[in-house]
Amino acid sequence: MVAVAVLAAGRGTRMRSNLPKVLHPLGGKSMLERVLDSCGLIQPSRYLIVVGYAAEEVKASLSHWENVEFILQEQQLGTGHAVQQLLPALQGSDEDVLVLNGDVPLLRQETLQQLLQTHQSNRNAATLLTAQLDNPQGYGRVFCDENNRVQEIIEDKDCTPEQKRNQRINAGIYCFNWNKLSKILPHLSAENKQQEYYLTDVFTSLSPVMAMDVADTQEIVGINHRKHLADAYRILQERIKEQWLLAGVTLVDADSITIDDTVELSPDVVIEPQTHLRGKTVVASGCRLGPGSLIENSQLAEDVSVFYSVLTDSTVETGTRVGPYAHLRGNVNVGAGCRVGNFVEMKNTQLGNGSNTSHLSYLGDATLGEQVNIGAGTITANYDGQQKHQTHIGSGCKTGSNSVLVAPVTLGNDVTVAAGSVVTDDVPSDALVIARSRQIVKPGWRLNSDQ
Ligand code: UD1
Ligand code: CA
Description:
Layout: E1 2-8, E2 25-26, E3 29-30, H1 31-37, E4 46-51, H2 55-61, E5 68-72, H3 79-84, E6 96-101, H4 109-121, E7 126-132, E8 141-144, E9 150-154, H5 161-164, E10 168-177, H6 178-184, E11 209-213, H7 226-246, E12 250-251, E13 258-259, E14 270-271, E15 276-278, E16 282-283, E17 288-289, E18 294-296, E19 299-300, E20 305-306, E21 310-312, E22 314-316, E23 321-322, E24 326-329, E25 332-334, E26 339-340, E27 344-351, E28 356-357, E29 362-368, E30 373-374, E31 379-381, E32 391-393, E33 398-399, E34 404-406, E35 409-411, E36 416-417, E37 422-423, E38 432-433
Parallel strand pairs: 1-4, 1-6, 4-5, 7-11, 12-14, 13-15, 14-17, 15-18, 16-19, 17-20, 18-21, 19-22, 20-23, 21-24, 22-25, 23-26, 24-27, 25-27, 26-28, 27-29, 28-30, 29-32, 30-33, 31-34, 32-35, 33-36, 34-37, 36-38
Antiparallel strand pairs: 2-3, 6-10, 7-10, 8-9
The chain binds uridine-diphosphate-N-acetylglucosamine and calcium ion.
């Protein structure tokens, strides 16, 4: 069995942010969550998260994770000091402990599994993930003997110019025999450029220590400032898009599209330029999304099209066309074969199958039956200045242009609302409602005439 420890106590000063570094979002999840996700294949016995800066915020962000324990590092005196805080929790443990920096969010699950296997099959005291980088600046450099056993790690800031030329870097991902590590940890010193207790100092006292070079160096990008975060986002997007392209999704002008990795797509989905899919969005086969759309936490059934529109927290059934310029937000459910578009906003509203709301409408806190036709400019007046109220519109209703339905109000089935009406009272089924003043025509009338 293996326990996982994640170092997440630092503020991340170089991010220049009030938000703790590990909570910065990267494609729909925090960096810290991504680090935990990367342990999926190794199934750890427990997760120990070292928290410090904004500890409560970090804890709250993982409230939906099970098996997670938090260890407080009150002062952040370095990565070695952070791991020292684990001593009480892991006292007497004969497990291996995987120590992960909380700011290395792009690791693949397979890589961690391989690291653990290498560690266990060689019975190492420690095994660490390394990479050969063209630009190793900022990372600790890993020095090995002729048998590829790690001798020492020297932090970038402590390297001589000669040592800086070593391109083999420490990724900040380690597997330790806890029993051996725990004997060395209490003896770290902070005599270095940064006056910190470095975890990397333990390697001079441990043996054997093996380094495992990662094949894809993009996996071990450590995030220290926002440029790194932007680079990591780009890498993540490339990964996600490649996966969907190979799974049969068409991306038109892929560079202009962004997709969170929490999104699920099906074969024969077409995504047009400048379209962004976020959160728990699920898209069925045959959908055409974009150009110019933002879809978040929404579920789209087969053959839905969305054109220059924004959808959040909504569902759309088969064959419905949305847009251009529609905004669906906060629990909207649109049935099959509907048409929603041209400057229509819907909020907390259900629209039955085969219904249309094609032009210039606001439908809020409403339920509409099937085969309803909402005329151009129809508004549900759902707010009386203090409270929201419901509007119910039965199947087969037709509202005339520019009608206002003042909630709470119910229209039965097959009601026709005359254009320009302000409907304040319920209307029974099979009725025409005209709620406006009659037109008055005064023949021959002229301004300033004697009449
Ligand atoms: C660290 C490594 C470096 C490696 C690099 C990889 C050390 C001394 N150096 O450097 O060799 O190349 O990562 O990205 O370990 N943290 C705490 N408590 C602390 C200090 C840090 O929990 O007191 C956490 C931070 O929140 C962060 C992680 O440890 O998640 C790494 O800390 P950071 O300061 O970014 O280390 P680097 O200088 O990048
Ligand atoms: Ca770092």
